[in-house]
Automatic annotation (TrEMBL):
Pfam families on file: ABC_tran
Presence of keyword rRNA processing: no
GO molecular function terms attached to this record: ATP binding; ATP hydrolysis activity
Protein name as it appears in the record: ABC transporter ATP-binding protein
Keywords, alphabetical: ATP-binding, Nucleotide-binding, Transport
PANTHER family: ALIPHATIC SULFONATES IMPORT ATP-BINDING PROTEIN SSUB, TAURINE IMPORT ATP-BINDING PROTEIN-RELATED
Entries under InterPro entries matching the protein: AAA+_ATPase, ABC_transporter-like_ATP-bd, ABC_transporter-like_CS, ABC_transporter_ATP-bind, P-loop_NTPase
Residue ranges the record marks as coiled coil: none
Length: 266
């Protein structure tokens, strides 16, 4: 459903962030993207979101080229405090993008309350963002994306600003949402454990300018648990392999070719 071919992007100062990047993402996959700090992960997501225009190359979503912000896409940013409007209630924050869908006021509010319920905040609709904890605010951001019913959700370090326990809770939330809503998700993270725990597949980018360094299927059970899953031998092996690759190690022998979408057999 997402096809990226020969993607290049240079900033005005001459910095080359992306260099001939190829990537295919099938419908319904949760893809984790990791790489060294500053390698171009966020630039890649901004190109996919239509927030910046790549220097060259093509990106298509559901067969249509991306030449601006797609209608069928939602983004969850790391800094929830800047992505929520403090003067709007939680319900109205979630409902706001639904105007773009042409929905009436009552329909928008009903969809917002349903989305809030799906992220475990059924009673928060009348509160304001500043009355909620950081983890709850990020749940609101996720609910807003879900209410929009996108075919593709981009998440740029969405849990980087919360504590460790809240981060684990939000990881499990994303897994539940992914399974129930069948939304395709691209999650950029610096956390190697997180990339393996939530992902169907992990793509490792090399140092800038970014290209796909390795493309690895995650062969873990669909049902995941913060304690049991992280203790599995396959999780330990995969975490070590991804960590080695992020630090510049050679691609794993027998790994899927860069830019391809391995078939997951679970």
């Amino acid at each position: 459903m997402l096809q990226i071919t020969g993607l290049n992007h240079s900033y005005a100062d001459g910095h080359l962030a992306l260099d001939g990047l190829d990537l295919t993402v099938p419908d319904g996959e949760l893809l984790s993207i990791v790489g060294p700090s500053g390698c171009g992960k966020s630039t890649l997501l901004r190109c996919i979101a239509g927030l910046i225009r790549p220097t060259s190359g093509t990106i298509s979503l559901n067969g249509a080229p991306i030449n601006g912000v797609p209608d069928d896409l939602a983004v969850v940013f790391q800094d929830y405090s800047r992505s929520l409007f403090p003067w709007l209630t939680v319900r109205d924050n979630v409902a706001l993008p639904l105007r773009r869908r042409g929905m009436g006021r009552a329909e928008r509010r009903a969809a917002a309350l349903k989305a809030l319920e799906s992220v475990g905040l059924p009673d928060a609709g009348r509160k304001y963002p500043w009355q909620l904890s950081g983890g709850m605010q990020q749940r609101v951001s996720i609910a807003r994306a879900l209410a929009y019913r996108p075919s593709l959700m981009l998440m740029d370090e969405p849990f980087g600003s919360v504590d460790a326990q809240t981060r684990e809770d939000l990881e499990d939330l994303v897994l539940r949402v992914h399974r129930s809503e069948k939304i395709t998700i691209l999650l950029v993270t610096h956390d190697i454990d997180e990339s393996v725990y939530v992902g169907d597949r992990v793509v490792v980018l090399n140092r800038a300018p970014a290209r796909v360094h390795a493309d690895l299927p995650v062969e873990l059970p669909d049902a995941r648990d913060q304690i049991e899953t992280r203790g599995l031998p396959e999780f330990v092996r995969m975490r070590a392999e991804v960590g080695r690759l992020v630090r510049g190690g050679a691609r794993v022998p027998g790994a899927a070719p860069a830019g391809t979408a391995p078939t997951l057999d679970k």
